[in-house]
Amino acid sequence: MLRLPQFHFHMPDSTREAASILAAEGPDARVVAGGTDLWPNMKRRHQKPATVVSLMSIRELDGCDLTEPSEEARIGATTLLGDLVRSSALRERFPALARAIASISSPPLRQMGTLGGNICLDTRCTYYNQTEDWRRAIDYCMKEDGSVCWVAPSSSRCWAHTASDSAPILAALGARVRLQSAEGERDLALTELYRDNGIDYLAKRPDEIVTDVLLPGASDSQTCQSSFWKLRRRGSIDFAVLSVAAAVWTDGKGIVSDARIFLGAVGSRPVPVEGATEILRGRSLTEDGIAEVAGLARQLATPMDNTDFKAQWRGLMTARYTQAALREIAGLETQILPPHHSLQP
């Protein structure tokens, strides 16, 4: 049985108190919400914080405001994923986000995991997400205690990939996050929260807490059509080996005015398909335009041999899944199997 290491545990009642503890304890302190990521990582000695600060007693971080169509929506960072899956307001206003959240792990873990935790999920790699004995046997890796990235030994960086299912679709929808520290609050575009580095993958400071996720009213289903597709070996539990999130805005005649597509699990951050907007803007969503964007997504994706399935095949599936997401938005036949998760409560 794997056991947690010793640490000091705090359960503050307010965000201000939590921020004060983080400021006092310094970089050896970690924040925890549902704990579905941190606790297993600590048991495997991936992280060894001296202090852990729980957010689950802070009422202001739980719950959401999704009731007003076309108005900015707020989701508290400790809102349970299971509660969001069951939210009819979320399914109505942001259906692709609801689908992405429904794809996360399994029902029991969605009853523990939180949206803020999923956004801040640690990057993953075949050589990293192992027991300490296994990792010690190969002389560790760059992400934890070693000096070599076993995925690309000649590389100077870590290639662990992003594992969050909510991040790509939140990025496509133009979401922002609110951060709080002892110094005050600041808002950050979700796309600016991530760095393209498997180790230093978050741009937020260690003393900052994600308190809210903010979704623009212009991205809800009244004005935006969105889609989320996830590839994994099984229909539940497994992390993504590829995900595609797409959001498309059209005028009354079906002409695209804006489009954003992000890829998950093929890089250390959600990868934007740069150039997709220029290809699609000013024209209707046709098979030719969709195929062109899918080809562009394949060029931009850099899947590595750091997770399930062959990297080359995952690269090929990038184009297929991008096509499927956009074809779904366009009302065309998707040509491949849909994601194996429903939006039923």
Describe the overall structure.
The protein folds into three domains: 50 residues, 2-Layer Sandwich (Uridine Diphospho-n-acetylenolpyruvylglucosamine Reductase, domain 2); 121 residues, Uridine Diphospho-n-acetylenolpyruvylglucosamine Reductase, domain 3; 107 residues, Enolase-like, domain 1 (2-Layer Sandwich), CATH 3.30.390.50. It is α+β, with helices and mostly antiparallel strands. It is globular and about 60 Å long. The chain has twelve helices and twelve strands. The protein is 28% helix and 19% strand. β11 and β12 form a beta hairpin. The strands form three sheets. It has a five-stranded antiparallel β-sheet with strand order 4-5-8-6-7. A four-stranded antiparallel β-sheet has the order 9-10-11-12, with helices on both faces. Strands 1-3-2 form a three-stranded parallel β-sheet, covered by helices on one side. The model has no long low-confidence stretch (mean pLDDT 94).
Question: In whole angstroms, how far apart are the ends?
Answer: 34 Å
| CATH class annotation of the largest domain | Alpha Beta
Strand content: 15-25%
The gross shape turns out to be globular
Q: What is the H/E string?
A: EHEHEEEHHHHHHHEEEEEEEHHH
The CATH topology label of the largest domain is Uridine Diphospho-n-acetylenolpyruvylglucosamine Reductase, domain 3
Mean pLDDT: 94
